[in-house]
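hey so i finally got around to running the thing on that chain from the lab meeting. sorry it took forever, my laptop kept dying and i had to restart like 3 times. anyway pasting the input first so we r on the same page abt which one it is
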Amino acid sequence: MKKTSTQIEALQQKLAAYLLQADELFEQEKFEESLKTTTKTLQLIEQESADMPNIKISLYNLQGHIYFCKTQYKKSFTNYETALNLQLLLTQPNLAEKAKALLGLGQSGMYSEKVKDKSLAYLEESLKIALENNYTQCLSDIYNAIGNYHQLKGNWEESLHFLHKVIEVQNDLYGQVTIPVYFINIASIYSLKGAHGKSIQYAYKALQIVKQENKEGTNDAAITYSFLGREYIYQDQFEKGLSYCHKAFDIWKKLFGEKHQAIGYVLDMMASAYFYQEKFEEALPYFKKALQIYQSIFDKKSAEVALFNKRVGLCLFKMGKIEDAFPYYQQAEKILAKHPQLYQNQITSTYRYLAKYHRIKENYIEALQYFQKGIVSLLPSFNEDAIYSLPSVEEAYPNQEFFRLVNNKAATFYEKYLKEKAQNKGNLKDLKAAYQTYLYACLIIDCMRKDYSTEMSNFLLNRESTTIYGQSIEVCHAFFEQSQNALYIHKAFSLSEQEKVHLLKTAINEVEAKTKAHIPQNLLQQELQYQKEITQLKDNLLKVSNQHNSTNEDEVVSIESRLFDLNHQYEKLIHQFEKDYPKYYQLKYNSQLANIDSIQSYLRQKNQAAFAEKTNLRQILISYFVSETYIYIFKITADTYSLQKVEKPAHFHQLIIGFNKAINSVEIEDFLETAIELYDLLITPLQLEKSPKQPSNLTILRHDVLHYLPFDALFFPPANRDFEAAEIYDFHDLDYLIYHFNIAYHYSATLLLHSEKRQQHTNQQAATFLGFAPVNFVTNTTEKNELTLESYRGKSKVFRNKNWGENILGNLPNTAIEVEEVYQLFHQQKLSAKAFLYDAASKQNLFEEASKHKYVLISTHGFQYDETGNLTGIYLANGGEEIDNQTLEEASEKRGTNPSQLSKNSNTILTTSESYLLSLQADLVVLSSCSSGIGRLQKGEGMMAMHRGFLYAGASNIIFTQFDIPDEMSSLLIKKLFAAILEGNTYTAALRKAKLHILKQEGVSPQDWAAFALIGR
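ok and heres what got predicted. didnt touch it at all, straight out
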């Protein structure tokens, strides 16, 4: 019976209501209920024999989307295909629904073996319809899908192009991004590129949306949590990473059950957390469970299953079950090879692990062939199968996977050479190939560094690159031993320079580039403001991240979101500098490094200057490089140079820590034992000559854990190593290096030469002095803390560190004496001087005054937020009036009063990151506080501590401390230091004289003098 128009209209309204209901259920992520409603609606249409194609199209599109979310990709594709076919029957197709169907076909097609290669065509057709008809609301999803396609293909720059278009569309439509996954997809690309600093910024931006839009417990929240989990696991923050992964797991389990693709993904992340901790036995069950889930969703010969075959194989490989791992790799290779354009990065890493299998089996030719296959798979334009071939640097694809392939290939050549050499048939062709491939890998590192804009990304790259440089230097040394060609010593030294303090060199270059490129002052002020705000937020983030309370995550999200916005604005400004001021870009990325020739020229100039001054001081530069297995020692004088290789003991790090511990605990036996071992490792190969009457100038370029070592506390052992026979009974009897050398340090030879140029300017300044000493830190009036200057003398030592007594900051009256007496030294010579004591020794006054003086002395407590050294600094006062020569006597009288009456304001902290924002013209900065040269030891960058910030900020020379210093003895040392400087001594000679004065005192040990070290001349 034919329906009346009223009945048809009523049916349409009923079906539309069902469709709306299904849509709402889908938005609420109630997928099963939504699916039941769409199925019921389609059945109703069939029962009523209704000709309602547009509603049917919408229903099939919605079902396609539901099945896609459920990771049932075949069903998803079929529904989208049905929706599209229905469109073809219409005389006036609904173009919006057609675009949706094509989008769905493209998305689900990426996961279908039969139509993977057609998925991009579907997406491009969908995009064309949306653009021609101004369907802006679906543009975001289309651009996002195209970006995801390119990500799977391994075309990351193209992927980023489309994913950033998503953000543009969202901002145009809504003024902000409302869907967290859009940010997560961008974060994923940066993570794959190795730019983990940027990736985590985008992830936290996504988490902010989750919280703002009340999406907790949703799929969007789970995706965000799982990605944050993955990133923290990559950063070795395993507990934090696993916590986020468990959050994602709980949400997905509730939404989808335990056999969903998302569950497999998060299990993979959990497995990775154990894998990276080398807990392979715990990781394997997670990998296997994830593999089972993927096998239940996908065809067993699908690429998705292949990826998990590879992961199980990798875990077995690391467990030492090499033969068990091999079939998993073979299966993965077999499947992935069918899709060379998709999953490019995954097939490449599969080749790498197949190569590693053969390398372990010492099948070197097969290993090299697989490494070559991996390189070719990443670079379609490079199809050289010959194992000795490498693409040009211009052809290269500088990402982590390519970098690892090249590195492993170089190592395989070298292992092949060593094995055959042991059999008396070593092939120099292989040694040469190893050498050339390592040099190539180092060039790739340079390319990658320029692409990384965040500190974190560079730090993570340094983890691997430091190993590469060490291996490269080893091959250079092997070539030198084989050929006796000094060229290889030169190259080894250049490689050691290339590895050291890349970020600091670039940062210092950038400061000068801004001046010489004539960037307008208003833009520089804008940049400085960004830097200040970013620095403050980063410090706050470090504090909040170490707290454990219910609001912690909300605070972190808020700070990270603000950081994201500020970093985005800051990067745009820097890009403007690079684009509009070409000289800025050129100078910023100037990679000219010091070499042996330039160092020898520098040393000759120093010798000539010493001769002219009738001191005849001999100049020696020692550069250390600590690899995983060896310590390389370069010794350079004005007319000679050498390279020594010393086997690094397994306990090397513990040895240095033990030496410092013996200094701090004043344990003579432990000190002697560790010092002798360190002397034999680090000093004996140098064949240094004693010269107490005319000490040589010794500049030491430390590396890795050597940044903890105070070299001048090492000593020349007695000839027969019998301390009793030599009548050595205590610290006072030892023949320390400081007796024979003026010792200075630097981060690298390149920065040493740069500092020399800088101090040609600062050395011409008038000899003005600036002193800072907050002095008082105790704020209560308990008997324990009512201390005067006299109560300190002759009693237990007070140290200038955060911890004193029961974790209380002790007052430091000797710092006032220290600053006052140095002030008087300058005053007596009628030189300009300023002193800021007590409440006047504030951060604000330091920023206002620091740029005006040649000499800056800061005497105070050192600060370290936690054991990681991520947040360090020095204490200053919170504000007050300047103490000048008129009020200095009044300040002196205050020392005997109750400390609680002196500190009306709370203390504040100048953090290491804030010190970078100082503007200095100082020739010398003295940081007279505990451990001002100790912070986080960072691979490839050295010690991230307070003295580094002052070096960046413009100081030519810096005296800092390497462990906790006693208040009274340090005060005496600093007074003698400045007295020697004003007598005309160089800073190294002055510091040596000050230390020798302390050494003459009774009962002293290296604890009283060895902490102070100089970067400079």
